Amino acid sequence: MTEPEEQVRAAFVTQAGWCDRLGAPFTALLCRLLGDRLGRSTELGRQVLRWPGNGDPFVDALALRLCGGLHALVRRGDAPSLAQFYPPSDMPEAESLWAALRPVLADPALLPWLGGAPQTNEVGRAALLMSGLLVIADRFPQPLELLELGASAGLNLHLDNYGYDLGGLHAGDPASPLRLKPNWTGPPPPDRAVAIAGRRGVDLNPLDPRQDGERLLAYVWPDQQARIARLETALALAAGDPPLVDRGDAAEWLEARLAEPAAGGVTRVVLHSVAFHYFPAATQARITAMIAEAGATAAEESPLAWLRYETEPDEDRFTLRLRLWPSGEERLLASCDPHGNRVDWLAG
Q1: How far is CA 136 from CA 84, 130, 229, 245, in A?
Q2: Which domain holds residue 261?
Q3: What is the pTM of this model?
Q4: Under 8 Å CB-to-CB from 306, ≥6 apart: which residues?
Q5: Pairing relation of β-strands 163-166 and 179-180?
């Protein structure tokens, strides 16, 4: 076995571990089978096992690319023998699942799924992002301008269209058909009004909620039907008023946005969720530097906020962190899971 092949197989095992931790045993089994048994007899197998990049879940997310393609075939009825083993069916035995999976791996329709990073646009994360906006509004009681990096279809740019129960605090739109209530420990966030003065995002491959919903749904783990249902609801809401998401490099786009004069009486908020670690290291460094530079010129009437729902280097957890200018203060707001299902609120 070559070193690249060993790394690829290890990446599938790592992804399986994350699926186990996050309550997706079927997807975990799928990843383990693929990592252990995928061979070079198909073009798909050859491309996967010779992967030129880094297949790690926090870099290229190779296992999730392939799992997304398989889920897409199942959802559109193109793999009926495999579909009978997918949730909500009972958890299958490994040998039975592999027997159904093996012939599907020869389907050329899977190959394009290897070429793009997964995009779930997980709307469960909106609960954390809204909690962060409440903290910002508590410090600066004025409208917010949202600038989202890695926005995908922009579903979380319209987070004020959703309803929330955040540790007993009700926020957002009480009449929304999408209600988010994460498992919450600790005190609730501040009870403040959140007014959005503007919203705009960027993505290397922006998706249209009216046309690309099935692509987004394919990346959601089939074990987690509640996630699928809330994404379907968010897509329906966004279809009537699609968010503005530009196609482009996050650093170049943000540089242009921050160069625009800041409006007085408005808080500019740069935010992203489970996206930053997919950016190249040079892009991460450039974004960090330009935000700090913009923060140095922020004023009390036109402040700047950086809201980050990510993993930090050398940390095996997801957190919600906030930095505010002109003070430059950094706050750890919460520890959480990557889908917004669990929140341990740490802010006072």
Answers
A1: 47, 10, 30, 23
A2: 123-345
A3: 0.91
A4: 269, 270, 271, 291, 295, 322, 323, 324
A5: parallel
Q: Please give the single-letter amino acid code of residue 10.
A: A
In the block, tokens 């919460």 appear at: 334
Cite the DSSP H helix spans in 141-265.
213-218, 225-239, 250-259
Listed as own residue / partner, the contacts of 256-262 with beta carbons closer than 8 Å and 24 or more positions apart are 257/147, 257/200, 258/290, 258/291, 258/294, 262/298, 262/299, 262/302, 262/304
Whether 153 and 181 share a structural domain: yes
Closest CA to 341 of 151, 143, 168, 122: 122
Q: DSSP code of 65?
A: H
One domain, residues 141 and 47: no
Q: How far apart are CA 229 and CA 235, in angstroms?
A: 10
**By the 8 A CB rule, do 196 and 144 touch?**
yes
pLDDT per position as a tens digit, 208-259: 999 999 999 999 999 999 999 999 999 999 998 999 999 999 999 999 999 9
Which H/E stretch holds residue 242?
none
Residue 253: name the closest of 278, 277, 270, 241 by CA: 270
Spatial distance between the Cα atoms of 191 and 161, rounded to a whole number of angstroms: 17
Length of the chain: 348
Domain boundary among 71, 96, 115: 115
Are 296 and 173 part of one and the same domain?
yes
* Residue carrying structure tokens 């962060």: 132
- What is the C-alpha to C-alpha distance for residues 336 and 311, in angstroms, rounded to an integer? 10
pLDDT in tens, 36-84: 999 999 999 999 999 998 988 888 999 999 999 999 999 999 999 999 9
Give me the residue label for tokens 């991460």.
Answer: 284
